[in-house]
Amino acid sequence: MDILPQLIVSGLATGGVYALIALGFVLIYKATHIINFATGEFMMIGAYFCYTFMALAGVPVLPAFLLVMVCAAILGFMVERVILRHMLGQPVISIIMVTIGLSSILMGLAEIIWTSQFKNLPPMFPRAPLNLGVAVVRSNLAYGFIISMAAVGAFALIFKYAKAGVAMRATAGDQMAAFSMGINVKSMFSLAWALGGIAAALGGVIIGAIGGISPTLGAVGLKIFPVVILGGLDSIGGAVLGGLIIGVLENLAGGYLDPFFGGGVKEVAPFVFMVLVLLLKPYGLFGKEEIERL
């Protein structure tokens, strides 16, 4: 079997999961203009929620997924209400440092509650790999991609048709105009954090099902920054396209360059690409350019 189609298909499947996690990042930034450096830890906590429900409490897969979504929404809501709400109007660097501190707090809590020992999630998907003819995809990755794209589609429908989704879009476009139209902007901030928590947690469950979970799982969240930079910090469609591109790029670098350089290129390639994108197109492929007149 030719290695190129295999790398591309596997990269697209991985990129779909990246896109879901990046969507959680974009939702929060789009509504609140806060860069959430704790996205990876939200993802890690979501995986541990799933482990608690399935491995410890014996909850079946579908109810466990629903419970993870509820818990992740509550976590995101509480973080916004208890911590970020008090940072409104503060300098950007202060808010960034708060989210960095939050990531350390969540990692520490995970070690206290679940210990630092590596854990595996119970089997969630059929074990047989998916044969697409030109490529074979591991079942966890294939079904993870399907779940990710379904979740992205559900979020898109919410934003397009649901009343709360329309209000969030209005808030993202112009907070003052949204407030003047009777929209509770602060409630939209809370909703954005809740939805962002759900997206990140679902991505964490999928990644945990593929490779297991530990308190350091949040480091995978660092790969989301090249995704959102490429697609644009405030673009939902860009998050999806960016995730697919980075997934393929990462796989191609691992397949063709890692053997030549002795390894390590797969991990570095997305960040090198991110720097190039920032140099050539600072707002990403679909990011909104902000023009300031002096």
Distance between the termini: 59 Å
The strand count comes to 2
Evaluate the radius of gyration. 19 Å
- Name the overall outline: globular
H-E order? HHHHEEHHHHHHH
The total of helices stands at 11
Q: Helical proportion?
A: over 70%
Strand content: under 5%
Q: What number is the mean pLDDT?
A: 88
Structural class of the secondary structure composition? Answer: mainly alpha
State the name of the first-level CATH class: Mainly Alpha
Number of domain modules: 1
Instruction: Give the low-pLDDT segments.
Output: none
CATH architecture annotation name: Orthogonal Bundle
- Strand arrangement across the biggest beta sheet: 1-2
CATH topological fold name: ABC transporter involved in vitamin B12 uptake, BtuC
Tell me the major beta sheet.
Answer: 2 strands, antiparallel
Give structural notes.
This protein has 294 residues and is mostly helical. It has one domain (3-280): ABC transporter involved in vitamin B12 uptake, BtuC (Orthogonal Bundle), CATH 1.10.3470. It contains 11 helices and 2 strands; from the N terminus they run H-H-H-H-E-E-H-H-H-H-H-H-H. Strands 1-2 form a two-stranded antiparallel ribbon. The mean pLDDT is 88.
Keywords:
71% helix, 2 strands, 11 helices, 1% strand, 294 residues, single chain, ABC transporter involved in vitamin B12 uptake, BtuC, mainly alpha, two-stranded antiparallel ribbon
